[in-house]
Write a structure and sequence with these properties.
The chain is mostly helical. It contains five helices and two strands; from the N terminus they run H-H-H-E-E-H-H. It has a two-stranded antiparallel sheet. The N and C termini lie far apart (73 Å).
Amino acid sequence: MSVTTGAWSPRRYGPLAERIAADLLAHPGTPKFLAEPSYRPAVDAWASAEAICQLLREWLAVQDIEAAMTELTEGSESEERDGPNVTRSMRSRRVASVLDQLHRHETRAMHLRVQLGLSPLSRARLGKDVTSAQLDLARMWAEEEERDKAAAAGGEEPCRDPGRA
């Protein structure tokens, strides 16, 4: 009964997050490294953020935002003590709070997308880094081969230690 959006209930967003992570890992365009066990916590965190965003958006979609943004929820609470009584009053806007949470989780999901290489720019950068590393290895192997050829032409034993040139 107390669940409003479901975004703060693991029972609500947990299965949705699992489905989002499974869809990502099953997609043929997903980079292979994301299926490695070491990436699972990051993929799960991203999927949870996406699930929470989805639940918040669904809740907001059925609200009359204009009325809800102007409507204040007010309440007061009295507490009797040995000394003077204490009265607390509170005022809140529920929709504004949900919008703040949506922004917070969308930002979190965006940062995790970038870290995992799930956005176009971060994927391009990641691909560049991988290609650069492959080119560096190719250059190292070519240099080693050149040293071996030079050593063989000079009658020396080929160098097997790339750090020794």
